[in-house]
Amino acid sequence: MSLLLAGMTVLVLGDSHLATKGYLIDTLHGELMAQGAHVYSYGACGTQAGDWMKPVRPTCGSAFKLDDKPTRERRGEAASMTALPELVKQHHPNLIVVVNGDTMAGYNDKGDALPKPWIRGQVRALTEGIKASGASCVWVGPGWGNKGKFYKTVERTQEMSDFLADNVAPCIYINSLKMSKPGEWGIIPGDGQHFTDAGYQSWGSAIAREIVSSDIMQKIKH
Amino acid sequence: MKTYWRLTSFLLCIFVAGPVMAELQLYPTGPKDILSYVRFVNATDSAISVVSSSSSAKVELGTGTEARASAFFPVKAGEKQSVTIKSGNRKITADVVGKPWEYIVIAVLPKGANQIGTGVIKEGMGESNATKASLALFNLDAQCAGATLQDGLKRATKFADIKPLSVQRYLVSPVKLTAGVVCGGQPESVLADIPQLQAGERYSVFLMALKNSRQAIFVRDGN
């Protein structure tokens, strides 16, 4: 239990890393609840940061978990996402946790440059919405993957993380790359981006530790 | 004059939706289209119109401070974009091909006594930081061998010796700047009316020669 998080309402938003049972929607959610927070988590697979301001139909499923209720998955046509302003109206979060990076990184094997102007636009759309909500926020960047099917290389992952670190203000950036070494957390074979359940447990625990660390919480308004 | 742009064939909506992949949580990442961005700037003493050669897309640029620069228009990187530029009864054409995520300024410039020409300046995104403002100085004055932007208070000269038809861009603190542009060793400074800069925004100052006097036009880039 963290005195700093106890009683706080936390809204967690993310992409595919929160759209399947056993992923961060369970592990990070559970870790934050264990610190005494009320937690509302939403995952929309394949979506970009800006989509939380203008929702789209997630192309590969969605999930949500409301405080201590069971995780609900939605697949196919039932997949959905709700705009941030509506979620803020529903839950009145003190803290918003964004987990987004991989979907915007443009991993490729052709040497295409990181699409920085486009990423900046996506990130700004969401950070402006968060600013308007009045909530504090942290932004969790991508963890290490492997080339897998979509070429999530060490170099591009580092470049994406560095770019996000400079561009997510007023959110505080949480650098997932410092939480493990490349390959340390299990990655689903042939995937390259998604972790095994044990990997998601490690990532969720590490994110929660970062959030309750004095460095970050002291910057977060209550 | 109100700056406007209609149309579409060389404009692209920037939205991305991943491909339909049923329940498999794997997808190509990044944007649907690889883009570059094109803006037109009127550095002449007359109003101009810019018309796409492949569609009826049109932008009109006036001579007022706020009417001289268009917005940045997204275009497909690697594809040639052709426009016709008209000023009174004068007409010229211009072509440009952008690299991925490149920002391109097509400046319409005076040429000789009565003609117009173009100058193309390309830049990458440069550094980006949501806690800073991004400010560029474009030198569109062929007679200014080296433009320098000086902070009026500190006489800081971070933007220094910018050759004609070139640009420098830096991250700066989001403050109100009292700045002037000087050319070479000349003592006269052209005041650049720069308002309170906002963190995370991109801005440009265009130095241009108008009616035999220099002006520094400040513009918010918008993306």
Characteristics:
heterodimer; A: alpha/beta; seven-stranded mixed sheet; 32% helix; globular; B: 223 residues; mainly beta; five-stranded antiparallel sheet; four-stranded mixed sheet; 49% strand; disordered N terminus
Outline the secondary-structure elements:
The complex is a heterodimer of chains A (222) and B (223).
Chain A: E1 9-14, H1 24-34, E2 38-44, E3 62-66, E4 72-74, H2 84-91, E5 95-99, H3 116-133, E6 136-140, H4 154-167, E7 172-174, H5 197-212, H6 214-217
Parallel strand pairs in A: 1-2, 1-5, 5-6, 6-7
Antiparallel strand pairs in A: 2-3, 3-4
Helix pairs in contact in A: 1-5
Chain B: E1 5-6, E2 35-42, E3 48-52, E4 58-61, E5 73-76, E6 81-87, E7 90-96, E8 103-111, E9 115-123, E10 133-139, E11 147-151, E12 159-162, E13 166-172, E14 176-183, E15 190-196, E16 202-210, E17 213-220
Parallel strand pairs in B: 2-8, 10-16
Antiparallel strand pairs in B: 1-4, 2-5, 3-4, 3-6, 6-7, 8-9, 10-13, 11-12, 11-14, 14-15, 16-17
User: What is the average of the pLDDT values of chain B?
Assistant: 85
SSE series of chain A:
EHEEEHEHEHEHH
| Largest interface (C-beta under 8 Å) | A-B, 42 and 32 residues
Radius of gyration based on Cα positions of chain B? 19 Å
What is the succession of H and E elements of chain B?
A: EEEEEEEEEEEEEEEEE
Mean pLDDT over all positions of chain A: 95
Beta-strand portion of chain B reads over 45%
User: What structural class should be given to the helix and strand makeup of chain A?
Assistant: alpha/beta
Q: Indicate the structural class of chain B.
A: mainly beta
> What helical percentage do the residues of chain B reach?
under 10%
Distance between the termini of chain A: 17 Å
Description:
The complex is a heterodimer of chains A (222) and B (223). Chain A is built from six helices and seven strands; from the N terminus they run E-H-E-E-E-H-E-H-E-H-E-H-H. Chain A has helices at 24-34, 84-91, 116-133, 154-167, 197-212, 214-217; strands at 9-14, 38-44, 62-66, 72-74, 95-99, 136-140, 172-174. Chain A has a seven-stranded mixed β-sheet with strand order 4-3-2-1-5-6-7, with helices on both faces. In chain A, helix 1 (24-34) runs parallel beside helix 5 (197-212). In chain A, a hairpin with a 5-residue loop joins strand 3 and strand 4 (72-74). By secondary structure, chain A is α/β, with parallel strands linked by helices. Chain B contains no helices and 17 strands. Chain B has a five-stranded antiparallel β-sheet, with no helix packed on it. A four-stranded mixed β-sheet of chain B has the order 5-2-8-9, with no helix packed on it. In chain B, a hairpin with a 3-residue loop joins strand 8 and strand 9 (115-123). Chains A and B meet through helix 3 and helix 4 of A and loops of B.
